[in-house]
Amino acid sequence: MPQPVVLITGAAGGLGSAVAARFAAGNWRVAATDLNADGLHQLANSLPLAASVALDLRSAANCQELLSRVLARTGRIDALVNAAGVWREGPVESFSEEDFDLLMNVNVKAAFFACAAAIPHLRDSRGTIINIASDAGHQGNRNAAAYCASKAALTLLSKTLALDLAPDGIRVNAVSPGDIATPMLDFQAERYGEGDPQGYKRDLLKLYPQGPSARFIRPEEIAELVWFLCQPYAEAITGANLAMDFGLSAGK
Questions:
Q1: Residues acting as catalytic residues
Q2: Segments of the chain scoring below 70 in pLDDT
Q3: Residues 202, 132: one domain?
Q4: Could you tell me if residue 247 is inside a domain?
């Protein structure tokens, strides 16, 4: 059997790079894409990459170009992991159109058209799509209406694609983490922590049911779940939205 290929968007980020490392350790060929060319270069220095493509995926044409360039190097694709994502927060009445468009274009549009470009090739391999959503995609998060809307859209995109593509043998799932200990969370705390990023993080942890022992999820923990979902033994799992959030979304 040919060595399988995973294509990871947002691969230079904290979560994307952890996913790349897990698949490389599992003897998959890893194709990586990110807008951050320097970050991709650093990833290529730490992992063997079958393809590395620096592209802005906020257009359908660029998503098609991505698949063309990856397939030219790999000849196949067995899994697509949409790990690219951004966070912005703030009340709706003062939320900027620029930030709204950024959220929708990165969190939804890029994933939508990456799926569209990958699907014809995933039919050949009877492959898998994993979209990294969020606990904020199926419950409200105060002061984050636009982000919640973007992740809810990604979750329902995943479920709909699972139904549409099941006859082709393609499985599609969403993974919904809580807060992950990555540079994105650091950015979030610095930008919105009003001068107290550690206090911002402590306030997030207060929402977790573990009390004083609460901690943020590690990116390698999410990567392990993504890996599991792409294996043949997970064949029965499609159309799911799997929470990995220490029970944050279980209820109050």
A1: 147
A2: none
A3: no
A4: no
